[in-house]
Design a protein that fits this description.
alpha+beta; two-stranded antiparallel sheet; 5 helices; 6 strands; 17% strand
């Protein structure tokens, strides 16, 4: 039977009820949403951008032939011949992807490997499909007879390619040591390098 004691216990249980939920728990959820939603949106945009970038890389509109790169060649050379020489020394491909992230750095490193190039001053990529490279070239100042041939060096005694003209250049007097390395590197003979510096001073 349901007596007075049972009723009292029922009222007591009803009075206790469930513990109240702290208000802070209701506040945390909107804050988390405000943080997570922009983060998810940013990640989505990054992934979408990467997919679009990869798709555009295959588009012919964003490719250029190495032979189309604009630059002033060294004196006495045609631009096509110079670009072919750059490709030989650097291993650049025939086609360049204009959307490559490091294309300017890659081109600067490639042109710097050519023995004619003293410094890569600037690489510029401009719309719609234009690549310009500004270079400072080595200038022959001294002719050095060696092993049945005569080779030109620049003001720092750097050996120039065999195609460099030695006409009207002062000639090194003496017997030089063998070149220490290929074209584009210092001859490696102090006498040759000093004579080159003196020749450059006199040519000013």
């Amino acid at each position: 039977m349901f007596d007075a004691k049972d009723a009292k216990r029922a009222r007591s249980a009803k009075g206790k009820g469930s513990p109240p939920v702290p208000a802070a728990s209701y506040v945390q959820k909107p804050i988390l949403l405000l943080i997570l939603l922009p983060l998810v949106a940013v990640i989505g945009l990054i992934l979408l951008g990467r997919q679009l970038h990869e798709k555009l890389r295959g588009d012919e509109r964003y490719r250029i032939s190495l032979s189309e790169v604009e630059c002033m060649p060294p004196a006495g050379m045609e631009r096509a011949d110079f670009l072919a020489e750059v490709q030989y020394y650097s291993g650049l491909p025939d086609q360049l992807h204009l959307l490559e992230n490091d294309l300017t750095t890659r081109l600067a490193a490639a042109f710097a490997k050519d023995p004619w190039v003293e410094k890569v001053q600037r690489v510029e990529i401009a719309p719609p499909r234009r690549v310009c490279v500004r270079l400072r070239y080595r200038t022959p100042v001294l002719a050095v007879p060696y092993a049945g041939q005569t080779r030109a060096v620049d003001r720092n005694g750097v050996l120039l390619p065999a195609s460099a003209s030695t006409d009207s250049l002062p000639v090194f007097q003496g017997t030089p040591k063998p070149p220490a390395g290929p074209a584009g590197t210092a001859w490696g003979d102090e006498a040759v390098e000093e004579a080159a510096r003196n020749a450059a001073e006199r040519a000013r």
